[in-house]
Write a structure and sequence with these properties.
212 residues; alpha/beta; TIM Barrel; six-stranded parallel sheet; two-stranded parallel sheet; 8 helices; 15% strand; globular
């Protein structure tokens, strides 16, 4: 078993560059970690040439966990449905796929994405639209982990070849979910360490990560 550790984004970690007052570059980040989670895709899809440039800044074995766009996770509606965004997304990540450097695509669903039938079916739609690309799903509603549902969820994810994310967070907050660690895909188990600062968990503002 190989364990790899990475951070979310590469630009916000000044401790990697002796606390210099500038953003950390991907090249600098890659000298310390073998993988990074890229959340910019959630807000807007980058240009294809931008993704191609990333590959020139890291070693061939460096891996990218790419966050799905907010239309793909239901945070935002798209006119005519999300299919067009899925197509554009796959085109943009194609360079990472071709070099074997796409570790997985992370679908972090909103807290209101509960275990109702339409959402269960949407997970199947995600698999169909993503084709053979690796997909991880983070489900942040307690209904997925209720007695009798959790086991069915594990089997469902295995059937669809979806990596079920285990989220470590303050579990006593309103709407908190349990740490549900399991393996649903043979080549990847994904643990996301959100932080356990319960007082800062609901904090807003620009420094919400720091407050957590």
């Amino acid at each position: 078993m190989k364990v790899t550790v990475g951070l979310t984004t590469w630009s916000e970690h000044p401790s990697l560059i002796n606390n210099a007052r500038k953003k950390t570059t991907l090249k600098e980040y890659g000298q310390h970690f073998p993988v990074v989670e890229v959340d910019t895709f959630f807000y807007a899809l980058p240009q294809l040439m931008t993704v191609q440039k990333w590959l020139t800044d890291v070693a061939p074995g460096f891996q990218f966990i790419v966050k799905a766009h907010q239309v793909m996770t239901g945070h935002q509606e798209a006119v005519g449905g999300p299919q067009a965004v899925f197509t554009q997304f796959k085109q943009v990540v194609a360079p990472l796929v071709s070099t074997g450097q796409l570790k997985t695509v992370l679908f972090q669903f909103p807290p209101y994405f509960d275990a109702r039938t339409e959402h269960i079916e949407y997970l199947r739609t995600v698999r169909e639209l993503m084709g053979n690309l690796p997909v991880a799903v983070e489900l942040r509603n307690l209904s997925w982990y209720q007695s009798g549902v959790g086991d069915a969820l594990v089997n469902y994810c295995r059937d669809l070849k979806l990596t079920l994310v285990a989220a470590d967070e303050p579990h006593q907050t309103q709407g908190g979910i349990p740490f549900f660690l399991t393996t649903t895909t043979p080549h990847l188990t994904l643990i996301r360490l959100h932080g356990r600062n319960q007082a800062g968990w609901q904090a807003g503002g620009k420094d919400w990560r720091g407050k957590r």
